Structure prediction request, 471 residues.
Amino acid sequence: MQATASKLEGSRVRLDVEVGPEDLQREYARAIRRVSGRVSIPGFRRGKAPRRIVESYVGAEAVMREMVEHVVPRAYTDAVEQTGVEPLDQPELDLPDVPSLDAPLVFSAEVAVAPDVELGDVSALDVEAETPEVSEEDVEAQVTELRDMRTTWDPVERAAQLDDMVQVEISIDAAGLPEPEREPQVYSVRLGQNGFPAEFDQELTGTSAGDEYAFESEIPLDDPNPDLRGRRVTFSGAVESVSEARLPDLDDAFAQTMAGLDSMDALRADIRERMLEQRRIEAQAKLEDDVLDALVDASTFEVPAVLVEQEHGALLERETQALVSRGVAVDTYLGSMGQTRDEWEQQLREQAVLRVNRGIVLEHYADAEEIQADGDEVVEEIDRVAAGYPEARQDTVRRSLARDEGRARIESAIRNRKALAKLVEAVTGHAGPAHDQQAEHDPDPDVAAVADAAATEAEPGEAPESESATS
Prediction:
């Protein structure tokens, strides 16, 4: 067999493969035996009929198809090994319509490959790290939020005002609206802080318990309910009660209740430190992204479309599953965000391009720096990931991650983390990542996929479990 590889545009390669007549004739003889073993030919035991009888009974073309189905995949694999090509996806084959046993079988295969990358000069990159800060206003805003969480509501015998909680029966009516949407529902609504149209707050301000109301309003186009979006509807119902907020005093008892601390000064100090740590993590993540993006801009390579499609599909599946696990339908989520499905998918596609670009330069930087994951790091990471699952599933997860696919993904995740830390330090002079949120909490998504699959497999005598790792 002979094979040659030719580079094409878009990080693709064309393999031209030639299988000689002698190889074809040997494979044809094997195809005769396979076909003969699958059919019942009168007068012969399975697999024992002569070639001419088999060809007469099933047709020479059927035998030839059988031969090609075995020859081409094997020849393609041999061609990949012979030329050193590393495919990223399945090949697009161009086969002759009617091959002959008296002439070479010539076919071609086009396949996407990893791009040739010319890394930019890391020493020339200029990226500044942000200095995270927490102001007094930030702390007080958090204190206010904690205080609001402890709000209690006292019924009042007066007209409703903004910020009051009104318990109200609501009916919504419009032409063509499904009957379930017309059914009255009782809601507790805080005036000025709810998802109803602005007219709702205006109409209910000044009403008292027992008052009835009715008014028309336009439902926004981004309303979570697709049956209501953009409609002009009639709200009607009755006010059942009005309550005003009673906020707790900001004293030492409040600090003890909220965080088990002795004083408000201690609570504010704790809030400041927690906010500062979170902003350090966010600043580190932004720094890592900025460094990778700077290296992408300074490097030269073509992005294989297949990698973008694979990453886009993975992001779609991951985001959809995350919503489903929270009991939220995709369309409901998109409605609340004011997005169409096309806009959402385009947003995820842009994220996919970013992730692929960053992944390519990081991998080549790791190659250039000869960064690898050592055995102890792999074992430690396997144990860390497994510890995030129920105890009964941890051994199953460990075994799966220690096998070929799982171990390869673990090694890749560790290698990427080490390469990113070294790259950040090289560009900024700061050792990093100092706050590797992924390493400390969430496993790499590819690693998590292997672990989740293992965790849901039932051990002998056990029912399958549905728990997954938690952060």
Summary: The CA atoms of residues 421 and 432 lie 5 Å apart.
